[in-house]
Model the fold of this input.
Amino acid sequence: MLNPHGRSASVLALLAVMLAACATAFQEPQTRLVDARIDSASVERIKTTFTVEIDNPNSVGAKVTRIRYTVFAEGVKVIEENVKKDFEVKAKAKTRVDLPARITPADLAAAGLAAALNRRVNYTLKGEVTIDTPIGDMTLPISDSGVLKW
Done:
C-alpha cells in the first residue's frame, strides 16, 4: 500500500525542482516606449496613451491582468495609474500594448520647465505587473529610466 503523504511529498518535491529549473532559465523581458500621444486636453487634465513594446525572450508567454505604474519626469511625479487590462505577452516575441495615462497640467509644468530648457527630460518608471499563472496571480516589479530627447 502506498503512503499518501509520501506521494504528496514526492509530487511537491518534483514541482519544486521544476519551478527552480524554470526560475534559473527565466530572462527578464525588456520594455521600450514606442509612442506617446495626446488623446484630449483640458485645463484640468491631459489624457494620453503610451505604446510600450515588451520583448519576451522566454519560451513561455504570460497573460497580464493588471499594471500599476508611476512615472517621474525630472523627479516630479507626473503619472500614477492602476490599469486593469488583460493582454497576452507572447513567447519569444515582441508584444505592443497601449497604456492610458492622465497628467495634470500643473505636474507637467513643474517637470516641463527643466525639459524645455534642456530639450530633454529624464524619466523614471516604477511599478508592478500582475500576471495570471496556473498557481494564481503573481505580481512582479517593473522599472525603467532614461532620457527622452527632442
